[in-house]
């Protein structure tokens, strides 16, 4: 059941139901105080960073009093669009608000924060590469990557569509979050590791491809924040207007 909370801010007034999302223990100190600022990202200095995003069909800017911004916790196995001809779950199954559009997509097999708006300028600020708006993901990978492995992600790795930009990568405690349905399939003999990954790009399945590149496939991916907005207390399928 969706929960709507009017007048809430993006950080201090979560939806009325659900439990607070948090991590066990403290957040890692290395760069953790900059996860939502993007200040520690280095500017690309090589032609190897050749990825160029496709232009988006952003909607026009609207007056402040008419602006709508919705935060939504997308459940697993839900499309990040409002229509589908194959009967799969879409945003329309949860959000009964007209004329809002997703600011960036989230893969069907990923979970977590989506931002929807009717303001094309705001949408572009969150999604266009030039804006360098940070997005933080909580990522469970198979195996235990070393600092050397993680340094590769921090510097950028070669993907099919070009080098990834430098990213913030930290090992984190397992977050206290909802159970996924269906549950993640683990291999009993192989440990898993949770990472906090902050990027300023938004390529198709980028985080999954980055971890696969260094030999540690992603088992579960939750987008925790976009810009200065985060999941707060939103549970899967819940949304609020801010």
TrEMBL record:
Q: Where is the composition biased (Basic residues)?
A: 40-53
Q: Report the superkingdom from the record.
A: Bacteria
- Enzyme Commission (EC) number: 5.4.99.-
Q: What is one Gene Ontology biological process annotated in the Swiss-Prot or TrEMBL record?
A: rRNA processing
Q: One of this protein's Pfam families, by short name?
A: PseudoU_synth_2
Task: Provide the Pseudouridine synthase RsuA/RluA-like domain boundaries.
Answer: 69-212
Q: Where is the composition biased (Polar residues)?
A: 1-39
* InterPro entries named in the record: PsdUridine_s_RsuA/RluB/E/F_cat, PsdUridine_synth_cat_dom_sf, PsdUridine_synth_RsuA/RluA, PsdUridine_synth_RsuA/RluB/E/F, PsdUridine_synth_RsuA/RluB_CS, RsuA_PseudoU_synthase, TruA/RsuA/RluB/E/F_N
Tagged with keyword NADP: no
User: What keywords sit in the KW lines?
Assistant: Isomerase, rRNA processing
Disordered: annotated span: 1-60
MF terms in GO = catalytic activity, acting on RNA; pseudouridine synthase activity; RNA binding
Family, as annotated: Belongs to the pseudouridine synthase RsuA family.
Q: Which PANTHER family match?
A: PSEUDOURIDINE SYNTHASE FAMILY PROTEIN-RELATED (PTHR47683), RNA-BINDING S4 DOMAIN-CONTAINING PROTEIN (PTHR47683:SF2)
Please report the name of this protein according to its UniProt entry. Answer: Pseudouridine synthase
Species of origin: Vibrio lentus
């Amino acid at each position: 059941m969706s929960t709507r909370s009017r007048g809430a801010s993006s950080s201090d007034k979560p939806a009325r139901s659900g439990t607070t999302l948090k991590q066990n223990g403290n957040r890692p100190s290395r760069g953790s105080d900059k996860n939502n600022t993007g200040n520690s990202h280095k500017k690309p200095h090589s032609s190897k960073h050749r990825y160029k995003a496709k232009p988006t069909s952003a909607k026009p800017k609207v007056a402040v009093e008419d602006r709508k911004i919705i935060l939504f916790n997308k459940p697993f196995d839900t499309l990040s669009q409002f229509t589908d001809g194959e009967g799969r779950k879409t945003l329309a199954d949860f959000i009964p608000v007209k004329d809002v559009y997703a600011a960036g997509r989230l893969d069907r097999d990923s979970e977590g924060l989506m931002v929807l708006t009717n303001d094309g300028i705001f949408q572009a600020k969150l999604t266009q590469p030039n804006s360098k708006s940070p997005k933080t993901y909580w990522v469970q990978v198979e195996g235990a990557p070393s600092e050397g492995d993680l340094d590769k992600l921090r510097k950028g790795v070669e993907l099919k569509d070009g080098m990834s930009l430098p990213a913030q990568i930290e090992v984190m405690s397992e977050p206290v979050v909802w159970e996924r349905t269906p549950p993640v399939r683990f291999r009993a003999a192989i440990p898993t590791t949770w990472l906090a990954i902050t990027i300023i790009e938004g390529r198709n399945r980028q985080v999954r491809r980055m971890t696969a590149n260094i030999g540690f496939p992603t088992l579960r991916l939750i987008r925790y924040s976009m810009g200065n907005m985060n999941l707060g207390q939103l549970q899967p399928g819940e949304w609020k207007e801010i």
